[in-house]
Write the structure tokens for this entry.
Amino acid sequence: MPDYYHLLKDKKVALVGKAGYLDNFEFGDLIDNYDLIIRVNHYTLIKPEMSSKIGHRTDIIYSSLQLEDLELLSSELTQDLQIFVGNPATHPRREYFERTPFNCKTTLINPQTLEQSKILFPQGDGALMGTLAIMDLLNSEAQEIFLSGFDFYQTDSPPHNQQYEPELWKKYGGGGPITHHPQEQFQWFLTLRDERIKTDPYMTQIKRKWELDTLGYTVVKNLYTDSEMEKIRETSLKYLNQGMGEYSLIRHTSLENRVQAIPDAINQPELFPAWNTILNSQFFLHLRRILQSEELCYCHNSDLQMNRWTVGWHRDHLNPPYQKYASTNFWDNDQPYTNYRFALYLQDCTPENKMGLTVKPTSHLSPAEQGTERYLATESGDLIIFDARLLHQGMTNPPQEFTLDRMSYFFNFGIPSRICTEHAQGSIARQCQQREESTDSYTMIPEVAKLFRNHNIEYQIEVNE
């Protein structure tokens, strides 16, 4: 075991890279709260004006032993530095490293980590230093590993460089990971399932987008506070208890016949306080980051359900008899599918009560893909986002016993496209038929229309029979 692992044992550590997106955020306070702050390559004394973005101290440095890094490590290096961890490259860098005087302990990276990286990334120059640092921390007994400033060169933004003197950056900055094959390492990172790993909001959204594209779903944890969920639940119960739910879609009974489903729930004025809480600024901020699009549209599909269970596996793209609105091929890989479904359960859905959603990951990739079912255990305040083509089901059997009314909201947003327009037209037709209303009478209530305008959400649409 390397000498520095004892320092990591049972500690909450932050590993900070230099991705360009850091210039747009202020994660400094979040980073500074960790027991140890670890940085990768090119770090010297942090300028005071940068501490709000990247924290103010450095406890450990992981370095690929580039000569420019060693030059940057002057006597002015932050006094907090405890250990300098070098990559034992088989070239003169290592000899230079071993001769260079440091005002802290020096050591070489765990050989086990290096061997592991060679197996995982045998091509080119092997793993990036940031990837090696992540792998090394995973091999340690650190209690929590918070990652910030890593995009694996997947974005176009230049490396975060404002903490360096301009002359040094001009002399040593730039370069590129061309021979490191960063895309492979990015995919490796996305598949990590170690519960110790936490990520900054930007990295979290990158991972959610990958989950949405690859698996067909993602879960945003704790999007809503307890007080917000209480408000949503109280508003919904008040509406349903006043007999507004006369549009029941099923005839089964539970909780003394309290089974209701409200189509076009977003256009019921009594429910607007709930929708105003659900569709808040945080929701749209997360949605834009996850979908990586500033342009968003409402796909005119919203349901409120209480104590309802379903008939089994299904998809929420346009199904008969509403396929007549679809002129596009929802399975055309050359045409991005941009319609997404959202599920908000107003109570905890535990593995025991099975009150939540079960999905078949990857079943959104083709009509023949079935996937292996997975139950999504969620807590009140979590939001599920899934591709509308994904196979899914809710409760398939009435529960033996309810301790409270089981309620959920399902609704659709997407990135403006012909696909979303067609989905919206079909959804409007379906909801109007369920409410025994004409599509000619369909309109957005003023409160919701104003909310969408305030958040720059497209919502205007015409329905042609």
